[in-house]
Amino acid sequence: MANKLIVGITQGDGNGIGYEVIIKALADERVLDMFTPVIYGSSKIFGFYKKQIHNIENINTNVITSARDVHQKRVNIVNCLPDNVFVEPGQPTSESAKSAMTALSRAVADLKAGDIDVLVTAPINKRAMVKEGFGYTGHTEYLEKEFGVDEVAMIMVSDQLKVGVVTGHISLKDVTKNITEDKILRKLRIMKASLQRDFGVDSPKIAVLGLNPHCGDGGLLGEEEQQIILPAVQKANEEGILAFGPYSPDGFFGLGNYAKFDAVLAMYHDQGLAPFKALAFEQGVNYTAGLPVVRTSPDHGTAYDMAGRDLADPRSMMASIFTAIDIFNNRERYDDIQDGKMTIQMRDNEIKPKNGRIIE
Fold it and tell me: Which is nearest to 323 in space by CA: 129, 120, 20, 187?
């Protein structure tokens, strides 16, 4: 019991399907034998949505003011919103955006303090939050800033496919000018390190997609493949990264070639996420690689049209929770192995002969 991980879960936009997928994911009391959940939001909103869901047995909750006060056999709720918080299922509002920001801020503070082990974020309305002064285009950019890292990679994860992107939440018209040799290399480095440490892949193979139709068709439809992407792949190979490509995305996914690789690097958001969601939408997970902490999220949005109607599918939320736990455990094992290797190397260095003689 003492070794169970504490999983922080933010409510996201309280007018979307966040609470419904959270409640459904935690409805089976057996999950409490595997981890301790801490929801950041409102017990009032939790209770509202719980009443909208059929066939949910009683969920034992524990309302707390801090993650340090968790009950290991209950669903804990950190009440970080006002008691008079108002719910309007299906409607993006100023209040729901502010509430999402508050919940995220509290959860990140506890993650930094070590009061929770991993973070799972329910969907937010990016536009509504930006209007309220959020200042970021999504969770990924916010966490990158909060944890002071120079670069992260958004990787979509499922059992059969992992897809990263060079450019994330930017307009399509801005993609081309943001595709650079250096940026592709940085993403490949992060992906390789993440596949090794977070997913236990010793020598990961990464496929790199082209930017233009038919990979530019020899320059007829664009020269980025020859001038930027291929040189980046070659430099990655020189660094010991097993990168291959560029590949034309339509044939690559259409022929199932992704199954031959451990991960795929797409050039822009929809180039990677559209095929990923077509193949793994129900169980897809959004993972932020490159952070010193573990953060995952369902691969769907707020789905306002479903909110409050008991239609939301919790499988992506469940996958997000268990993927976060798996990554946390994989990191610990990987780091233990690396520490062991370093200890052995230090011992070898201590007894290594100098000038032909062993120094005693």
Answer: 120
The neighbouring-strand residues paired with 295 are 119
- Asked if 319 and 31 count as a contact pair (C-beta separation under 8 A), the reply is no
Choose among 36, 119, 100: nearest CA to 285. Answer: 119
Say if residue 123 is preceded by a cis peptide, omega within 30 of 0: no
Q: Sign of the CA dihedral 21, 142, 130, 300?
A: negative
Candidates 341, 313, 296, 354; CA nearest to 5 is 296
Give tens-digit pLDDT for 108-148: 999 999 999 999 999 999 999 999 999 998 999 999 999 99
Distance CA 283, CA 293 (A): 22
Contact status, residue 144 vs residue 186, Cβ threshold 8 Å: no
d(CA 70, CA 77): 9
Separation CA 333–CA 294 (nearest Å): 15
The H or E element containing residue 153 is strand 153-157
Helix, strand, coil in percent for the chain, rounding step 5: 50, 15, 35
pTM, 2 dp = 0.91
Closest CA to 222 of 200, 248, 193, 183: 248
* Both tokens assigned to 147: 């944890």
Note whether 161 and 52 are within 8 A (CB): no
pLDDT digits (tens, 9 = 90+) for 233-289: 999 999 999 999 999 999 999 999 999 999 999 999 999 999 999 998 888 999 999
Report CA Rg, the chain.
22
Q: Dmax over Cα atoms in the chain, in whole Å?
A: 79
